[in-house]
Design brief:
The chain is of the alpha/beta class. It is built from three helices and six strands, in the order αββαβββαβ.
Length: 125
């Protein structure tokens, strides 16, 4: 199993431990840039939503860089896929280390709206 698929497996296991049951295990990955829309939602281009196999090389690169941490978060459902965000520290590490991966589930507002990611994420065409 490649690194990104292992990380996604661990994210799903984490959600199940919290008794959060995603409606699908089909995933789109987006690297979070910190751009927001006028409503305060994260804003990403549709072309930034990638299949795990497409994102694999980038994920391997991130792990080699040696950030102290990365966050892998479940954002909700978009076009029948679970959107998983990858958040990185703002600056490159001065002293590379083994990267710690932090997992988090969707915000309550997403769960309250049947996993609808549009409550927290704008996807632009």
């Amino acid at each position: 199993m490649n690194s990104i698929n292992l990380a996604l497996k661990k994210l799903l296991e984490y959600l199940l431990e919290l008794q959060i049951y995603p409606p699908t295990q089909n995933v789109s990955i987006v690297e979070i840039s910190g751009e927001f829309d006028k409503n305060g939602r994260l804003s990403v281009g549709r072309d930034m939503l990638l299949d795990p196999d497409v994102y694999e090389a980038r994920f391997e690169e991130i792990m080699r860089i040696g950030y102290a941490w990365i966050n892998i978060s479940c954002y909700g459902l978009y076009e029948d896929k679970l959107v998983v965000g990858i958040e990185l520290p703002e600056s490159m590490p001065q002293n590379p280390v083994k990267t710690s991966i932090n997992y988090s589930g969707p915000p309550n507002i997403v769960l309250e709206h049947k996993w609808n990611v549009e409550k927290i994420l704008e996807v632009k065409n």
